[in-house]
Amino acid sequence: MDARIVDHPEFRLVGHAARVRLVHQGINPHIQRHITALPTEEHLRLKALGNTEPSGLLAVSDDLDPDYAEGSELTYLHGVAVSPVRRSPTASTSSKFRPADG
User: Fold this and answer.
1) Burial 19-30 (b: 16+ CB within 10 A, else e)
2) pTM (2 decimals)?
3) Do 41 and 89 form a contact (C-beta atoms < 8 A)?
4) pLDDT band of 68, cuts 50, 70, 90
5) DSSP 84-102
6) Residues 9-36: pLDDT tens digits?
7) Nearest residue to 34 (alpha-carbon basis) of 7, 9, 12, 15
8) Which residues pair with 16 in a beta bridge?
9) Which of 8, 15, 27, 24 is nearest to 76 (CA)?
């Protein structure tokens, strides 16, 4: 997996979130069930809502156990980034992210 750190202006994440268990190896079946439970039309709707970087459908994990213990819970978001001034539609969650200071 390639990773990079970049600075972005403030943005919001909108999409569908779920509390799931952390799985260290292989596909996480809890996340897989969450994503596959969404209708195809919802994936298309989310893609159309995204209007800023990072673009495309995003897989975001938050609120992880500090020790990353197998089986601990985390919040998983399947969604897109939108500009902070765009009104959030009726997606299940919306979170504002600001660039890190320094």
Assistant:
1) ebebeeeeebeb
2) 0.78
3) no
4) very high
5) TTSPP-S-SEEEEE-PPP-
6) 899 999 999 999 999 999 999 999 999 9
7) 15
8) 78
9) 15
What pLDDT is stored for residue 88 in this prediction? 62
Phi, psi of 41 (to 5 degrees): -60, -30
Rounded distance, CA 81 to CA 55, Å? 7
DSSP assignment of 18-38, as one string? EEEE--SSS--HHHHHHHHTS
DSSP state of 82: E
Strand-pair partners of 78: 16, 59
Residue located via tokens 């209007």: 51
The answer to whether 84 touches 11, Cβ cutoff 8 Å, is: yes
Provide the total of helices (H) and of strands (E) in the chain, helices listed first: 2, 4
Contact 78, 57 (CB under 8 A): yes
Q: What does the block give as tokens for 101?
A: 């200071």
Token pair for 11? 């943005």
